[in-house]
Structures are given as structure tokens and as C-alpha cells.
Design a protein that fits this description.
With about 500 residues, this protein is of the alpha/beta class. The chain has helices at about 1-50, 75-90, 110-120, 150-165, 185-190, 205-210, 220-225, 230-250, 260-270, 285-290, 315-330, 345-365, 375-385, 400-405, 415-425, 440-450, 455-465, 475-485, and strands at about 60-65, 95-105, 130-135, 170-175, 195-200, 255, 275-280, 300-305, 335-340, 365-370, 385-390, 410-415, 435. Helices cover about 50% and strands about 15% of the residues.
Length: about 500
């Protein structure tokens, strides 16, 4: 017994001899980390003090920065950026504010970017904007991370955010592109007031369910979905990532989301309901409402138009296959054509367009591609179209859908996400469009629309036009300014 007591005492002494030094080392490491972070914070503060411009009255300018590495792209996210800037410049025109956009579009000048915004979106800013050109945008491109893409891009965004912070330290930082991992960087190291506009959660409960159910999607390879072990490992990875994503996202002082679908996911993941509000993205509703409805009797053929960037999640192959199925149904009874309109951001997008052309050749389907076209040409195609086609599963919102409806096309969208919850929904009890979720159901819906009488189609077009005013630029500006007001107090 005495020997056992001695062994226990020796064990306790051994644990104490290990615990106390470990505690000291851990405490010292934490102290050094705190000193390091405070040192960086002090360095950034001094950098900001010497770089912030002064107004005519001698007071320092307030610096408001938007993080939008792809600001020269032609998608709905970019329209949100330019409308947000225009709204702030109009609202705070009498305040000394310097507006900054962090961008990775180094192959163009700031003037060319602004001219592009006017050409594509008909948006002209009343005051100048300073562009901070970032060199490390490649760190957030998916092609760099064939595996663990979410983690890779998120870590890459931290390095890109650090480059942005060291080049310009703002007072107000707004992430307008969905890089949540930059938020704590600007808040705790930059001392900024933080806002964000979430177009699409980096990870969602729907993505978790896809992996849990072992479903093959563009972001869940078949070799993973068919393997229970790999699916379980990926599910664990997703859950861990979702937890961290919630932590970084909740550091934002103001959270704006673009739809009911996005709201539901962000509330679940970020747990910040007191700071979160829906701000529908600005759609150039009036410009499209000004388009005269073309009499169907004057049309020699029916065109089906798709508007959306050439990205994998938009699922353009589904549109081509559905159109091919429709042609087999209709035969030569009607002249039909499919027009795919969208923006290309980089070589990856250009390669996708090339792959889509190959699908068309293989199926023997005549499809017109309109890439990065001017705004006036877009309006022309929508004015002449009978059907607007959209196939993205769980589209967060769908600005192109609203524009099609305002222009007078009959919308056929995916039966999920924003189209299902916010846009292609009954208006005052009337039909505003149609939804589908498979190749066959899309073909069937297009067949049904084309089988309606001209008067029946006209009524649906008029219903849709009346329903889209809640997505106008004016509604966006009012809701956006109301949401970000606390950042300027």
C-alpha cells in the first residue's frame, strides 16, 4: 500500500512538473501573440493617420472602402456595388468622404472600369472613386484549389484582404462580394466599422444536405458522393468550415442579405439576427419597363433567352439539353432559337463557353452565344424574346430573372432559392411566370408557354411587369442606406 501511495505522489509531482512549465509557456505565447497583434494594430493606425487625406476645412476625410476583387465583371454583384456607391455619394454629398474600391482588375484603368459600369449597367457615379489595385487576386480563384476549394479560397481571401488593408486603411469597410474571412481582419487589425452584403453564403445548409445525402453536384464530385467514407469525411470538413464561417461572419456590424433564401441560411450560420436585414439587389427595372411590348404577330420566330454569367452553378448545360428536348417535341412546327447571354470574368469562364459550344455541336442544337455584350444589345434581345430561361439550383436571388420579367419575357426559372421564395411568385393572385427543376420539366414548361394563346401570354407578361417594382433601384437605395446608417454615426 505504501508503494502505491508513493507511486501516486510521484505521478502527481510529475504532472505538476509538466503542467506548470506548460502553463508558463502557453501564457508567454498568448502574451507574445497579444503584443504582436497590438503592434500590428498600432502600425496600421499610424499608417492610416499619415495616409488619410484632409478636406478643405482641414478635417480628415472619412474613408469608405468596398472589397470587390472582380468589380469589372458584368454580373449582378457588380451592379450592387455601383448602386451602393451611387447611393452613398448622393446621401453623404456634403460630407468629406473618400470612396475606395479594392479590385484585382489590374489589366484595366479606373476610368475604364467606370466606363464599363456605365456601358453595362447605365450607372454613372456623381463623384470620383479611388481604385486600389490588388496583385494577389489569384489567391481567391477556384482553379488554384482543385481540392478543399472553400478552405483554400477563404484562406486566400485573408492574404488578399491583408494586401488591401496594408495599401489603404479605411474607416468603414464593406465586403460586397462575400469574402467573410476578411471581416475580422479589418475589424480587429484595421479598427474599421464593418458591413457586408451577402449574395450567397460561402457554405449553406443545402450544401451540407447535398453531401449528407451523397448527391452528385458541380461542387460534390461523383467519386466522393459514391463513397460513404469520403462523404463522411467531407461532411465533417463542411461542418467545421461552417462553424468557422459563422464566427468570422458574426464579426460584421451590419449584415445585408439579398433574399429570403440567403437570410434563412445566414441567420442559422451567423446567429446575428439583430444586425441582419434583407436588402433586395437593385434591378434596373424602369429601363426594362420602358421597353415596348412587341406584338407577337410581328415575330417571325420565338426566341428563348438566358441571362447570367458563364459560371458552373448557372448550369447552362441543362438549358441546352432542355432546349434540345423541346425541339424534339415541337419538330418544325415553330421556329425557335436559344440565346445565351452572359459575362466572362476570366479564362476559366471562357473555357466554359467553349465547352458549351461543344455540347451544342454534339446535340446538333443551334444556340447563339452573346458574351459581354453592351447594355443596349441586351435590351434588344430581351424585347424580342418570348421566354426568359434560368436554371441555377438555389439561386440566391436572380437579377437577370427580374430584368427578364420587367422587359416582358415570360420567365421560366428553377423551382428553388430566390426565384421560388421572392421573385417568380403569384402577384395579387395572378401568375407571373413558371418554374421547373429538370430537363424534362423545363422542356414541358417551355412547350406549355408556347402553346398558350397570344392573349394569355400577354396577361402573364403584364402581371410580371407589375410585380417587379419592389426590386427597383429606388427600393434598393432606401433599404441599403437604412441598413448602413449605423456605420456612419
Amino acid at each position: 500500500m505504501a508503494g502505491a501511495g508513493m507511486c501516486l505522489c510521484d505521478l502527481i509531482r510529475l504532472l505538476c512538473s509538466l503542467f506548470i512549465p506548460g502553463l508558463v509557456v502557453s501564457g508567454a505565447a498568448c502574451l507574445l501573440m497579444i503584443i504582436f497583434v497590438l503592434g500590428i494594430r498600432l502600425w496600421i493606425t499610424q499608417k492610416k493617420k499619415h495616409s488619410t487625406p484632409e478636406g478643405k476645412d482641414g478635417k480628415k476625410h472619412l474613408v469608405v472602402a468596398f472589397f470587390h476583387p472582380y468589380c469589372n465583371a458584368g454580373g449582378g454583384g457588380e451592379r450592387v456595388l455601383w448602386c451602393a456607391l451611387r447611393a452613398l455619394q448622393k446621401r453623404y454629398k456634403d460630407v468629406n468622404i473618400t470612396y475606395v474600391v479594392y479590385t484585382g482588375d489590374r489589366d484595366v484603368t479606373g476610368e475604364q472600369i467606370l466606363n464599363g459600369a456605365f456601358t453595362r449597367f447605365n450607372i454613372k457615379l456623381p463623384h470620383p472613386v479611388k481604385f486600389v489595385f490588388l496583385e494577389k487576386r489569384y489567391l481567391v480563384e477556384a482553379r488554384l484549389y482543385p481540392h478543399f476549394t472553400l478552405l483554400g479560397q477563404s484562406l486566400g481571401s485573408i492574404f488578399l484582404g491583408w494586401e488591401a488593408l496594408t495599401k489603404c486603411v479605411p474607416d468603414v469597410y464593406i465586403d460586397s462580394m462575400g469574402y467573410a474571412f476578411t471581416l475580422p481582419l479589418f475589424k480587429y487589425l484595421g479598427g474599421c466599422r464593418i458591413g457586408c452584403y451577402v449574395h450567397y453564403p460561402t457554405i449553406s445548409t443545402d450544401m451540407l444536405s447535398v453531401v449528407r445525402n451523397q448527391s452528385a453536384r458541380f461542387n460534390n464530385a461523383s467519386f466522393i458522393s459514391s463513397n460513404p467514407v469520403l462523404s463522411r469525411l467531407k461532411l465533417i470538413y463542411y461542418y467545421m468550415f461552417a462553424y468557422v464561417y459563422g464566427l468570422v461572419g458574426s464579426s460584421s456590424d451590419v449584415i445585408m442579405v439579398n433574399s429570403t433564401w440567403t437570410l434563412n441560411h445566414i441567420l442559422f450560420l451567423w446567429n446575428s439576427g439583430d444586425r441582419t436585414s434583407i436588402v433586395y439587389p437593385p434591378c434596373d427595372v424602369q429601363t426594362f419597363l420602358d421597353i415596348d411590348l412587341v406584338e407577337e404577330s410581328s415575330r417571325s420566330e420565338h426566341s428563348i433567352v438566358s441571362v447570367g454569367q458563364f459560371r458552373p452553378e448557372k448550369d447552362h448545360p441543362l438549358q441546352i439539353r432542355a432546349f434540345s428536348t423541346l425541339l424534339k417535341r415541337k419538330g418544325d412546327a415553330q421556329k425557335l432559337k436559344l440565346i445565351l447571354i452572359g459575362g466572362c470574368r476570366d479564362r476559366d469562364d471562357e473555357q466554359r463557353v467553349a465547352n458549351l459550344r461543344k455540347i451544342c455541336e454534339d446535340l446538333g442544337v443551334p444556340v447563339e452565344f452573346k458574351v459581354n455584350i453592351p447594355f443596349e444589345e441586351l435590351k434588344k434581345h430581351l424585347a424580342e424574346a418570348t421566354i426568359g430561361l434560368h436554371t441555377m439550383w438555389n439561386e440566391h436571388f436572380g437579377i437577370g430573372i427580374v430584368e427578364c420579367m420587367a422587359a416582358g419575357t415570360i420567365m421560366l426559372a428553377h423551382d428553388s432559392g430566390g426565384p421560388k421564395l421572392d421573385i417568380v411568385v403569384p402577384y395579387e393572385g395572378t401568375i407571373t411566370g413558371f418554374r421547373a427543376d429538370s430537363e424534362e420539366s423545363y422542356a414541358e414548361a417551355m412547350d406549355r408557354i408556347l402553346s398558350l394563346s397570344a392573349d394569355e401570354r400577354l396577361q402573364i407578361r403584364l402581371n410580371a411587369r407589375q410585380s417587379v417594382n419592389r426590386f427597383s433601384d429606388q427600393e434598393f437605395e432606401a433599404n441599403f442606406l437604412s441598413a448602413v446608417e449605423r456605420l456612419f454615426k
